[in-house]
Design goal:
Blueprint: E1 2-3, H1 15-23, H2 58-75, E2 78-79, E3 88-94, H3 109-123, E4 128-134, E5 139-146, H4 148-156, H5 168-178, E6 184-188, E7 202-207, E8 213-224, E9 227-237, E10 242-252, E11 260-268, E12 271-281, E13 283-289, E14 300-303, E15 311-315, H6 321-333, E16 337-339, E17 348-351, E18 359-361, E19 368-370, E20 375-376, E21 393-395, E22 402-407, E23 410-415, E24 421-423, H7 437-451, E25 460-462, E26 467-471, E27 477-481, E28 484-488, E29 492-496, E30 503-509, E31 512-520, H8 524-527, E32 534-537, H9 557-574
Parallel strand pairs: 3-4, 3-6, 6-7, 15-16, 15-17, 17-18, 18-24, 25-31
Antiparallel strand pairs: 1-2, 4-5, 7-32, 8-9, 9-12, 10-11, 10-13, 13-14, 19-21, 20-22, 22-23, 23-24, 26-29, 27-28, 27-30, 30-31
Length: 583
Amino acid sequence: MSFGFPWGLLALGALVPLVAAYFLRRRQKPVVVSALFLWRRPSPRAEAGPRFERFTREASLLLEALAVVAAALFLADVRWGDSARARHLVLVVDGSLSMSARGPDGVTVLEQVRREAAKRVASEAATRVTVLASGGAPRMLAGPEAEPSRALAALESFQALGADHDPMPTLIWAQELAGAERRVAFFTDVPPESEALVPASVRWTALGTARPNVALVSAQRRDEGSTATVTLRVAGFGDGLEDVEVRVRALPGPGAKEGTEKVERVRLPGEGTATLRLTFQGAGDVEVSLPDDALLEDGRVRLPPAPARPIAVALAAGLGRTEQAALERFLAVSPEVARGAGGSEAELLLGPPGTDARVTVGAGGKPRTFLGPFFSEKGHPLLDDVQLSGVRWTAGDNPPGKPLVSAGDAVLVSEEEGGRIHLNVDLARSNVQRVSAWPVLLSNVVRQARRAREGFPRRQLLLGEPLPVVTLSGARYTLVGPGTRRPVFGAGEVSLSPPSEPGTYVLERDGDAVDAAQVLALDARESDLRGRGSVDLPARETGTDDAPSDGAGRARWPLVLLLAALLADFYLTRREPANTGGR
């Protein structure tokens, strides 16, 4: 049970004079009469003055008290069952990183939203509250239809750290949850581009402030041996040039006694970025910080070690002497490969035709030499930047698979369905290995092998970027990160939806950690605070329960009870008892 207008219960005060009227009697003057038979109901009691007496009309008093109670319940707008939950308010909070920006008074926009949300719940007299956070993947913070105290407590623990996004899908979801009442309040820090784009039942409240800001918009780290290279990009979102002090601190890594701290000053234009590249020896985690400004979160980055993982390449037995030498020369100078021991330990096995090598190099059958024209499969990543002009190519019998490079009816490069590559070339009679096409082609082969490696192809990502991952068939994978644990479906290259929060995300295979990636709290669109502002746009369309609390929207049964009690009391008091006086 709930009351839409609790002040209506004050009408119960009418019970006091009603009960007092039944207990008190007023003083009357004595009257002399000649006989008592003229009085239908003579009272044997003396009327001496005002005093409490036992009353004799209990039924009438109970009916009149019932009428007073019914009137009070009607005025208080009593609600039972489903009608008691009619005051349902849906709060939508912008989950973007810019909601953590501080105003001139040092209070974040999110803290202002918490205060305003509490006031809105009280003003709407909401008995049930649902709280949603907008984002690339909208989520429910409290509800559906939670108690107001629990909903506001969930909002207190919420942190806005998401990427820039469109809030409309979340607002549509909020309208569906609000139902016919259509009480939806959206809190953000930016006014809408057009009021016509705001759903009619949504009250749009922006609490932001336009302020200048300096932010990190990109941060990458790469480790090669004991050397860590950190590349930073700093942007200024303000008016005019500005000198910014960038502080980079490398914590001591394994075997290092102490860390290293470097301070660099960069000059930022009002509409531009500056790039900074630093190297450290024997570094553990690297912390990057900018001076405090309106948005602290985009000026703090922590980069853990990201060692380069070269591809383990092995050469199978049986290669021709020319093919062996050409491959050895490439592997000796390529920084992206490491010589493997062969067999199952090698991630990329190069061998002659007829073996189970992932890449076969050689030609069998009657040789044929081609000087062009060469026809290549456009857009295939294996052929990126491979220029075959001026190449003399000697090939043998056509290999199996889909042709990637051909000359006439001869297939020079092919790819089987499982990703196996065949290079149909006799290097002893060709000049391919002596032109730029050869190292470029092999580099593309290595890159394809790296893309097929289990784990994350990229170790550092920005907010809002999809999360690429490579999985193997026949295994169960799980992505574990801040506030999330979800299965990964698919085999090979899989693109997961952008994470909703920054932090460390770990890929697990059958419960064991395989690889980890960092999602950094950096988004240039969120760091630009110049377009933020304040506005309060009321909803253009509301539900029926938003009407003033008059009799039209109240429960009818208290009125029926009131009328029934009055009619019963009238019937009871108008009855005249049988004449018992006289004889």
